[in-house]
Write a sequence for this structure.
């Protein structure tokens, strides 16, 4: 497992942009972002698998969010554009020591989008 530190959350108006960052304390095979709203299940947002730099984006944010990173710096970013109120959530960074699962989670960063 690794320690994950997220940053970049905040409050924006509808249509605004934010960039989230997550730094891992060690090497990982994959990193990703999830989000959670109180009373709802945790929702997958995006992931990047370092071997091959493969990325996968949830259909709910595809076209508005982009995931990218720097493997050598153990860092992943989530660029969020055209934000909507329904994107309001705590965004959690996740990392896995294998390409097939996550075994480390960050504390989360709050994103609030107002109409």
């Amino acid at each position: 497992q690794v320690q994950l530190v997220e940053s970049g959350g905040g409050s924006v108006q509808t249509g605004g942009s934010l960039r989230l960052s997550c730094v891992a304390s060690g090497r990982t095979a994959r990193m990703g972002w999830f989000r959670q709203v109180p009373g709802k299940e945790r929702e997958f947002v995006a992931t990047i698998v370092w071997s091959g730099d493969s990325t996968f984006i949830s259909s709910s944010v595809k076209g508005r969010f982009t995931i990218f990173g720097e493997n050598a710096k153990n860092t992943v970013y989530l660029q969020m554009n055209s934000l909507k109120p329904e994107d309001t959530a705590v965004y959690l960074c996740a990392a896995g020591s294998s390409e097939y699962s996550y075994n480390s989670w960050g504390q989360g960063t709050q994103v609030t989008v107002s109409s």
